[in-house]
Amino acid sequence: MIKEFKTQTTLNVGLETLWAAQSKDFMLIAPKVLPNIVKDVQLIEGDGGVGTVLIFNFLPGISPVNYQRELITEFDEVSHEIGLQVVEGGYLNQGLSYYKTTFQFSAITENKTLVNVKISYDHESDIDEKVKPTKTSQSTLFYLGRLENYLLNHA
C-alpha cells in the first residue's frame, strides 16, 4: 500500500527561475548544487517531459548505492509540478519497493516561491532508518536549500 508524506518550504527565488532550474536545467544544475554527492546526471531516454529517464551517478563512498535511475512521471508547466519516480537503484536498493517525489512550485511574491513536496513510498519489508520518509524529506529539503543558494549566487 502506497503511503504519502508531505512537507513544504519557502525559497527566496522567483517561480520562473526555480521552475527552469528544476525542470529544464536540472541535469546540469544538480551536480553543481550537490557537488560532494552527485557526480553527474545523464539523460537516458526522453525529452525532459513525462517518460524521460535519468540516471543520477553518485560519487564513490557517499551513498550505499552508486546510482539511481528516475522516471519523470509528472510534468506540468502550467501548475509547475514535476514528479520523479525511482525505478532502479537508490532507495529501491535500501528496502523500499516504490519511491516517488513530487514537487509543486507556487509563487508567493516575485522573488519568493512556496515548494510543496510529496513523497509517495511503499516497502515490502523493514526499511533502514535512513530511507524513512521523514529522513528522505530532510534530504529533499537540504537539496532545495542548496538549490536556492546556488541560484541566488550563480544565476
Question: Which terms summarize this structure?
Answer:
155 residues; Alpha-D-Glucose-1,6-Bisphosphate, Chain A, domain 4; 7-stranded antiparallel β-sheet; 7 strands; globular
Q: Helix and strand layout, with pairings?
A:
Elements lengths: L2 E9 L3 H10 L1 H8 L4 E8 L7 E6 L8 E10 L4 E9 L6 E14 L2 E12 L9 H22 L1
Antiparallel strand pairs: 1-7, 2-3, 3-4, 4-5, 5-6, 6-7
Description:
With 155 residues, the protein is α+β, with helices and mostly antiparallel strands. It has a single domain (3-153), classed as Alpha-D-Glucose-1,6-Bisphosphate, Chain A, domain 4 (2-Layer Sandwich). The chain has 3 helices and 7 strands, in the order E-H-H-E-E-E-E-E-E-H. It is globular and about 45 Å long. The mean pLDDT is 91.
